[in-house]
Each structure stands twice: as structure tokens, then as C-alpha cells.
Known about the structure:
- By secondary structure, chain A is mainly α.
- Chain A contains ten helices and no strands.
- The first copy, chain A, is elongated and about 55 Å long.
- Chains A and B meet through helix 8, helix 9 and helix 10 of A and helix 8, helix 9 and helix 10 of B.
Amino acid sequence: MRADxxxxxxxxxxxxxxxxxAADDPExxxxxxxxAAAGVGKGTLFRRFGDRAGLVRDLYEERAQRLHAFLEDDxxxxxxxxxxxxxxxxxxxKVENRTLARALENMGGASPYTNSSYDRLHSRLEDLVVExxxxxxxxxxxHALLAATxxxxxxxLGDWPEERLxxxxxxxxxxxxxxxxx
Amino acid sequence: MRADxxxxxxxxxxxxxxxxxAADDPExxxxxxxxAAAGVGKGTLFRRFGDRAGLVRDLYEERAQRLHAFLEDDxxxxxxxxxxxxxxxxxxxKVENRTLARALENMGGASPYTNSSYDRLHSRLEDLVVExxxxxxxxxxxHALLAATxxxxxxxLGDWPEERLxxxxxxxxxxxxxxxxx
DNA sequence: TTGATAAACGGACTGTCGGTCCGGTAAATT
DNA sequence: AATTTACCGGACCGACAGTCCGTTTATCAA
Lengths: 182, 182
């Protein structure tokens, strides 16, 4: 990748990140806005990212790296509470990246599910569910846990204090994995 | 409402229903398509339904009446298994109305949550959760149960036999409400 | 240093779609 | 039959995702 290309890629991701963070609704952020804010032509956006979904996915996954790094560190902590910590961290992430997460999840197609971050979370969670209660329905239960952090649900419950959401999530985790999982 | 207006309203809902049923992706169905299929001008659509979201909501709620009628009948059946029956019926509904449900849930804003069908399901479910395990986190748990039937999840799991989805849902219900809930 | 080459650039352009507007049409009412 | 008024349809508009192509520039070999 040529140097100017790499520089522009960074500029675009940074600009898009700021615009999504500042917006209440992902639809307020157009591709033209992003190009303008990055000081770049529109063609550059589409050449690099393919389409809007690609740009949003790349930005989301870049931000999700922090989350996955945390989960990696978490591997050598006590097993009890691992799922609770994972879900807690995920909710934090969704709250901190509300608009970007909504952009990703509303993109149509199977967008909430066609990104590597989701796959990684799901397979980790599935393993933990199997460990805690056996293989029966483990795949589905892992999806169900993740569905409880869907960003439009978080948005819908926007006037709840985050603490209350965390308690709800925690009750859900205890229900699915058993009381010793906290 | 004038007679021709009522007639056109019906024609539009019927046409829209057929188009969504035939489509794989809600975005394949444009407002122009619906107007043309209904034999009606575009203005008529927007005058009656306000915008695309309004039309989709009205159509969805019309179809959901069957579901709510079933849930009403279900009130005088044994309490054990009520939640499981409700969730099962809801999943059936989502499968039978896959594309329409995706249209509703992807409409942006808090669209999956701003329709009377969701509110009714949520409050019924919340009551049942309170009855089974007390008020703690009941509201959130009811949302979480409903989130497990999100139509894009159903879509993502499109190659699972419906039976397997039902089993997963059933395992989730037993976890949240206790084993005597089946 | 320079010249050739291919990658990258940018912004004008296109097609589509949701939503509006308004001159015409026909129900309803007397 | 005349009048009113809600309703109709489709031409029109603005916005946006995505494309195209003439121009620029990084790279590298001579």
C-alpha cells in the first residue's frame, strides 16, 4: 500500500469516528460528510472500503480491538465470572460506541453478524456456555446473550442508568450459566 | 374515512404484504413498487401512512393481530409453559413474516421497539417473569427474551431447522424462568 | 536525477429512492 | 343539480450511495 494511501485510510477512519461519535443517529453521517471531514475525495473512500458497510465494519473492528485485547488478558483470571466480565465489557463498549454500533447493526443484510468481532465473541461465549452447562443449545444461548446487548435495545433503554443495565445483564448471565458464574 | 380511501388503504396493505412476502430483503421493496402493485398513486401511500415506517408498522401490526389473539386465548390455559408457548408462537410469527419483520426492525431510530406489538409482548412477558421469579430485573429479562427472536438473528441462523431454534429458545426460557416453566 | 509506470486521487456525474406538491377528480351532502 | 371538500395521482425535488475518468504523484530502475 502506497504511503499516501495509508495516510488517507487513517484520515478517513479518524474523521468517520469523530462524526459518528458526535452524531445521535448514524444516518446523519453521510459518505460525503466523511470524505469532506477527512479532506479526501469521495472516490478514495469507496476505493479503500468498497462501500459504506465496509467502512463502518473496519472502523468498528478497529475500535473493538481494545475489547478483544481485554478479553485476551482475561483468559488467565478465575473462570467464575468470566462470562459476566465479558458481557459487562461488551455493554460498556456498546454504550461508549452507541452510534457506531447502531450504524453497524442497522446496515441491512445480516450486518450485526457479518463481522469478525461478533464471531470471536460468539465462539468464546459458546465455549464458556459448554463449559458451564454442557453442549445442549450452547450455540443458541451464546447468540441470545449477545442479543441482549443489541445497540438499539441499549438505545431504547437510554434513560436507564448503565448500572441498571449491568444488573439486568448480570441476572441474565446467572440464569443461563448458574449462580456460581458471578 | 371516505369509501375510496378505505378501499385504497386495503389495496396498499395487501400489495405491500405480497411484495414483502415475495422478497428476500426488505430493501428490494420500494414505495414506488408498492404503489404500482396496489394500482394507486404514490401520494396516496404517504397521505395514508405518513412514511415508509408507518406503512410497515401498520402492516406488521395487522399481521400481529393473529399472534395477539392467540396469546389472549392462551390466558386460560395452565400457567406452566405460558412463556414457552408465547416465545414459540413469536418465533413462528417471525419465521412466517421474515422479510416484513426485518423491514420493521431495520427501519432505524428505535424501530424494533416503537410499535404496539412489542409493547404488548413486553408487558405480558414482564408480568410472567415477575410471577415466576420476582420483580428483580424482570423488565430487562423480558427484553432479553424478546431480543432472542430478533429477525436478523433468525435470518442469520437461516439454515438451522426451525425445530433447533425452538429448542434453543426453550432452553433459554427454562434458564430464565426455572425448569417448571416448561 | 530523471523518466517511465502504475497506483492513487478527487470530484463531477448517475441512478434510485423517500417524500412533497398541486391541479384535477369524484365522493358526500343539501 | 350544485357545491363542497376530502382525496387522488404522478411529476417533481433533494439527498445519498456508488461510479467514472482525466489528472496527479509515489515509487523505482536506469
